């Protein structure tokens, strides 16, 4: 039986922390679908197509990883993907409350759906897309946080804004 998992998120932008989870999950599951949330109310820095394109580029060497966008409920996206597993990363205890709430809610809406948590690698446990956006906004060095392509796109984005 082919095991498909989905890894949903905003990925605004994708960081080394996300990539670490994608690599690890792609070894455990036959097929990993990364779902990029397209949500108007969240007002992202990058349009969903830009986030999808960056992700595609940085995972292109992983043959069993697919990148796609989704909108609406995660449970519906999971159903459409024929997946019963949601992957999420846990960095620290502060992530736990929100993640537990989300996984319980999703499990009630679809009892066949389970969330599998990966503990992030310690070297990325401090990392978040929002701090990367903040550092890049002030033209700080983000090369320790994101792949070179994402670094370029972020600098472009912030120089366009001026
Ligand atoms: O990277 P993020 O922003 O932490 O990811 C959050 C995400 C996309 C997993 C979450 O916001 C989500 O699943 N949104 C879709 C809408 C939904 O299903 N909400 C109810 C979950 S309790």
In short:
The protein has 162 residues and is of the alpha/beta class. It has helices at residues 16-28, 48-58, 74-80, 93-109, 129-137, 148-160; strands spanning 4-9, 31-37, 65-70, 85-90, 114-119. It has six helices and five strands; from the N terminus they run E-H-E-H-E-H-E-H-E-H-H.
Task: Describe the protein's architecture and organization.
- The structure is a single chain.
- With 162 residues, the chain is an alpha/beta fold.
- Helices cover 43% and strands 19% of the residues.
- The protein contains 6 helices and 5 strands; from the N terminus they run E-H-E-H-E-H-E-H-E-H-H.
- Strands 3-2-1-4-5 form a 5-stranded parallel β-sheet, sandwiched between helices.
- Strand 1, helix 1 and strand 2 form a beta-alpha-beta unit.
- The radius of gyration is 16 Å and the shape is globular.
- The termini are far apart.
- 30% of the residues are buried.
- The model has no long low-confidence stretch (mean pLDDT 95).
- 4'-phosphopantetheine (PNS) binds next to strand 1 and helix 4.
- The site of 4'-phosphopantetheine has 9 residues, from strand 1 and helix 4.
Strand content: 15-25%
Q: Outline, from the CA principal axes?
A: globular
What is the straight-line distance between the termini? 52 Å
Order of helices and strands: EHEHEHEHEHH
Class per helix and strand makeup = alpha/beta
Arrangement of strands in the largest sheet: 3-2-1-4-5
| Strand element count | 5
Count, helices: 6
Q: What ligands can be seen in this structure?
A: 4'-phosphopantetheine
Helix content: 40-55%
Low-confidence stretches: none
Radius of gyration of CA atoms, rounded to a whole number:
16 Å
Q: What is the mean predicted local confidence, pLDDT? A: 95
Q: How many strands, which pairing sense, and closed or not: the largest β-sheet? A: 5 strands, parallel
């Amino acid at each position: 039986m082919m095991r498909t998992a989905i890894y949903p998120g905003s990925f605004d932008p994708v960081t080394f922390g996300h990539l670490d989870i994608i690599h690890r999950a792609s070894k455990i599951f036959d097929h990993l679908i990364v779902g990029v949330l397209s949500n108007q109310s969240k007002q992202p820095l990058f349009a969903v197509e830009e986030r999808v394109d960056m992700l595609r580029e940085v995972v292109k060497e992983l043959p069993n990883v697919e990148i796609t966008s989704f909108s609406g409920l995660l449970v519906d996206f999971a159903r459409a993907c024929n997946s019963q597993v949601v992957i999420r990363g846990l960095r620290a205890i502060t992530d736990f409350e929100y993640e537990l709430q989300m996984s319980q809610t999703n499990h009630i809406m679809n009892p066949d759906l389970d969330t599998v948590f990966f503990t992030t690698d310690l070297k990325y446990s401090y990392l978040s897309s929002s701090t990367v956006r903040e550092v890049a906004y002030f033209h700080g060095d983000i090369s320790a946080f994101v792949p070179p392509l994402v670094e370029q796109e972020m600098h472009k984005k912030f120089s366009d804004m001026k």
